[in-house]
Amino acid sequence: DGTAYDGKLFIHAVEKGLKLLNPTAALQQSSSSYQSAIPTAPMLYAEVAANVAGAGTPALVPLQLQRVSVKVLAEANIDPCPSYICVRFNATWIVEDQYEGYALILAVPVGLRGTLVRCEMQVAGIGEVTLHKDELANCRPQLDNVYLVSLPPVKIPLKGGTLACVAVSYLQDFSTIDKKRELYSFCVPLSIPGYVTSTREERLQNEKIRVIFEHRGPGSIKDCVITSHPMIGIINGEKKQVFLQESDGYSNKDLECSFRVTSSGIQPNWCYQECLFVEAVEEGLRLICCPKGMSSGLHTLLPTAPVLYAVVSNIDILDTKAASADLSFHLPALVPLQMTWLSVKVNAEPKPDSVHVHFKGKWSVHCIKEGNSGALVLAVPVGHRGCLLQYEIQVSSHGQTVKTQEFPARSGPQFQNIYFVPLPLVEGGADVCIQCYYTQDVFLQDGVFSFSVPLSVPNYVSQMSGKSLRKGRIKLTLECKDAGIITECDIPSHHVKELILHERMRVFQQELLSHSCKDLACSFRVEPTNGTSPMEGWS
Q1: Least packed by Cβ within 10 Å: which of 307, 349, 366, 527?
Q2: Is 372 in contact with 426 (CB distance < 8 Å)?
Q3: Over the stretch 273-315, which tens digit does the pLDDT of each residue have?
Q4: 192 in helix, strand or coil?
Q5: Is the per-residue pLDDT at 171 higher than 70?
Q6: Residues contacting 218, CB < 8 A, separation 6+
Q7: Same domain, 314 and 428
């Protein structure tokens, strides 16, 4: 397990691995080559067991790096939406015959306050191993912002070795955010260690680095500078600039970048306070001539289920069929979009005490004219001590998918356990499909487990334009793997049908003909088996 390595043991294991790899070359290396065995770019090692490596400790043999592709997305947002760096590192390593059956250790150095989000490995002719964020939740950097991830042993299908393709995604913060000078800068670890380039005769076949600077909201990007690597600009826009470098040699420097963002224009201060949010929604409902009775009151306007809004800062982009031309408005306004279908999957386990929610919804950007684009924001209310993990967006226009993007969540809820997620610009008339994943806690009182998932769609969405939900489904799974038997299950909020009845698993489902008007409430008991109580460890 990679968590067993501390700094000294890791360095010692790498030095042993280099001697196993090429004893002659290892002895010839100057001491400066080994100043630091700590990786400064993602590296894959074969972990040779102590009984083979000798001296009672394992050895880490660095594998031959064949191809590298790096995609860096630097996104600068206006408050309170977070600004962050998202790094996607794809590489191919050669796993030689003699390392068949050995575990692999993936070392991932990250930048400032970095967080490893996802790890995938695919071996040629074998299959795929994927570690998602929830599985990496307890993973922490072991060595100076370096994550160590244990991967399963590799089977070699053919003589001569095989290829291991690894993809990792992680987030990190900007090194500098100077709001007065409108300056952002960051550094991504991309310096391939010297012991890799000096102990291998083979050269890297292909290296590709792509840097994307992006800004959502008012303002534009300017003065993009990449000081560490010579790059060619391939896209030069106000909101997005893209640079590319392709080479056949190892990168020996970290990627250092900076850029500026002009911040002129209206900022969405409605995220900061409930009353400002309510005012923005009221203005949005007035813009689309919403019937009276659906556009008043603090509690009726706060989202109690995921809701997608169009952020309208310019009334000229509104569809004239939907917009009111008789009133004056305070902009920006939040116009709720029509939800056409939804799917909700809820998995609850008493141990660990958490509920996993997967919400998928589809909205129509009906209020914006075709040919015009508008910003969107997704509001996601979560349950008790809920945490939004990830969201994905797919945009379709005229029946064809325009783009699909996946984002890890970075900020916390703004108020009332509501997350606000800014989305890219979307053209009018498009359909937007969004999936979001979050967790929340389970209550335990008097031996009864209970939870409530926010699923009450606001009236101003469910009654919009007299349209009803085209398709909807709720699926609830209660699972008790080793803590006992599930009994006394009650779901008073929805008329569900039980699909699976098992002592350790209960599955319920409801097909929706209209929007859900209630939160999904559930309670159940767990009877202990073999003297084990499911309440052990609860506080």
Answers
A1: 527
A2: no
A3: 677 788 888 888 888 776 555 555 556 788 999 999 988 877 7
A4: coil
A5: yes
A6: 78, 263, 264, 265, 266, 267, 313
A7: yes
Distance CA 354, CA 95 (A): 39
Longest dimension (CA), the chain: 84
Structure tokens at 342: 């939804």
- Whether the pLDDT of residue 485 is over 80: the answer is yes
Task: Give the CB-side neighbour count of residue 531, counting CA atoms within 13 A.
Answer: 0
Radius of gyration of the chain (CA): 27
Task: Report the distance separating Cα 387 and Cα 409, nearest Å.
Answer: 9
Structural domain for 46, as ranges:
2-262
Q: Is residue 539 part of a domain?
A: no
pLDDT score at 275: 78
| Dihedral sign (CA 234, 235, 236, 239) | negative
- Would the pLDDT of 324 be above 60? no
Global confidence as pTM: 0.55
- Asked whether residue 461 falls in the same domain as residue 479, the answer is yes
Is the domain of 171 the same as that of 316? no
Q: What is the torsional sign of CA 257, 262, 268, 271?
A: positive
Q: Which residues contact 162 (CB under 8 A, 6 or more apart)?
A: 94, 95, 123, 124, 125, 126, 154, 156
Which neighbouring-strand residues pair with 220? 262
